[in-house]
Amino acid sequence: MKRQLTAVVLSLCMAFSSVGVMYGADESTDTSEEETVTETTTEETTETTTEDDTTTETTTKSSESSSVSKDYEVSVSVDGTKSLSSYVTASGLSASDFTWSTSSSSVATVSSSGKITGEKKGSCTVTAEGTKGSKTYTYIFYVTVSSSSSSSTTTKSFTIDKGDTKDLYDYVDDDYSASEYDWDSSSTTYVTVTSKGVATGKKDGSATVTATYEDDDVSLEYKFKITVED
Hints:
Elements: H1 2-62, E1 66-77, E2 81-83, H2 85-88, E3 99-102, E4 108-110, E5 115-118, E6 122-132, E7 135-146, E8 156-161, E9 165-167, E10 182-185, E11 191-193, E12 198-201, E13 205-214, E14 219-229
Parallel strand pairs: 1-7, 8-14
Antiparallel strand pairs: 2-5, 3-6, 4-5, 6-7, 9-12, 10-13, 11-12, 13-14
C-alpha cells in the first residue's frame, strides 16, 4: 500500500515539473517577440528622422535664391518727364538691365532706360524687373500724371476714327474747369468740339482745336492737331 502511495506522489511531482518547464518556455518566446517589435519601431523612427532631414536641406537650398520687391509713388505732369533709374541702382544693375512696362501707355510711357513721360492726366503703374545671379528684383512705381501747369509750347497731335471722341481737357491745366476754357475748331467739317473740350471726328481730314483761358493774371493756350480716319 505504501509503495502505491509513493508511486502516485512521484507521478504528481513529475507532472507539475513538466507544466512549469512548458510555462517557462512560453514566457521566453513572448519576450523574444517583444524585443523584435522594439527593434522594428527603432528602425522606422530612424527612417522618419532621415526624411525630416531631407526636407530641411531642401528648404535651406531653396532659401539661397531670393527676390526683392519695392514700391514707390512718383508724379509727373503732362508732357513732363522723369527718370526712375536712381530708384533701381541699389540692386547693382543699371536701369537698362531691367525690363520696363507700363499699365497704361495713354497715361504715361516708359523707355528702356526707365524714363517716364506724362501723356495725359490720370494714374498708372510702371514696373521694372531685373535679375542678378539668383536674385530677382521687382520695382513698382505708382505714377500720377497731373495736368500741365503752363501753356503747351508745341501742338499735340492725335489720330482718331470717324465718329470717335477725344477728351482734350485731359491735357490742359485743371486748375480751371473745362467750361472755363474757350474751345475752337479750325474746321468743324472734320472735327467738332464741345464747350467742355470733347472733340469728335466727323470726316476724313484734319483740324486744329485751340483751348484758351484768359483772366487778369493768367493767359493759357493749348493747340491740338486732330486727324480723322475712316
